[in-house]
Amino acid sequence: MSAVIAITNQKGGVGKTTTSCALLAGLHQMGRRVLGVDLDPQGSLGFCLGLDIDNCATVYEVMKGSRPISEVIVSSECGDILPSNILLSAAELEFNRPGREFLLKNALSEIQEDYDYIIVDTPPALNVLTVNAYVVADGLIIPMAPEILSLLGVAQIRETIDTVRRCYNSRLKVLGILLNKYNHRFTLNREVLDMAGQIAAQLDTKVFHAKIRTSVSVAEAPAHGESVLNYAPSSKPAADFRALIDEIVHELPTNS
């Protein structure tokens, strides 16, 4: 059975998709069977990995029940992808029947045995799509930028996590808070690290030892349809993401 990890923060611009791409690429390079699930209507995960998201079937059709998941999954150089596009923005209004929290879980149950790790990239919101990700996940990774507003987004996630644990998924665990765009030389970055530790304690988790340093290569990689691990494998962020993956594999090992 695969380990399902959701990358989540209701604030945008904190590096959720960059983190998702890097985890897929790194795990794939380690020989793990991986699937990336894009739950963001912007379709950033598929786009960043070079997919034509406007001309393919997506997770929207799968959750609607109009297409089987096996027909929608596509391959990339970082593993398999279940893509998304703007059609998914109708989810909050359209997925309104009882049991809507389990749409993704039910879909993934058909193919979960085919993968070691499933990485779910969530939208910058706490909505039905995010809840679907939490319901199927074994663990959450919460990326944040070293800024005060990013901290507020992390703090507001707690209520949703508690509700999902209580009602739908008692095994849900927060694997850790991940600092992106980090520079230890800046005073604000160090202050945010201290505050992130306090929030991590409230969530019964930790701040990952690996912190992702900033680099132009992180911004350039999506334009080339690649993860930073493929685009700039010798860069500092690539090394940081490999260190993060080592922490995750230790925390959530699979049988592979």
Strand content is: 5-15%
> What gyration radius follows from the Cα positions, in whole Å?
17 Å
Major sheet characteristics: 7 strands, mixed
SSE ordering: EHEHHHEEHHEHEHEHHHH
Distance between the termini: 10 Å
Principal-axes shape call: globular
- Arithmetic mean of pLDDT: 92
Strands in their spatial order, largest beta sheet: 3-4-2-5-1-6-7
Q: Based on helices, strands and strand pairing, what is the structural class?
A: alpha/beta
Total number of helices: 12
Can you tell me the residue ranges where pLDDT is under 50 for at least 5 consecutive residues?
none
Work out the number of β strands: 7
Helix content: 40-55%
Describe the structure.
43% of the residues lie in helices and 14% in strands. It has a seven-stranded mixed beta sheet with strand order 3-4-2-5-1-6-7, with helices on both faces. It has helices at residues 16-29, 44-48, 59-64, 69-72, 91-94, 103-108, 128-136, 148-167, 187-202, 216-220, 228-231, 236-251, and strands spanning 3-7, 34-38, 74-76, 79-82, 117-121, 139-144, 173-179. It has 256 residues and is α/β, with parallel strands linked by helices. The longest helix is centred in the middle third of the chain and has 20 residues, at 148-167.
Protein topology:
Elements: E1 3-7, H1 16-29, E2 34-38, H2 44-48, H3 59-64, H4 69-72, E3 74-76, E4 79-82, H5 91-94, H6 103-108, E5 117-121, H7 128-136, E6 139-144, H8 148-167, E7 173-179, H9 187-202, H10 216-220, H11 228-231, H12 236-251
Parallel strand pairs: 1-5, 1-6, 2-4, 2-5, 6-7
Antiparallel strand pairs: 3-4
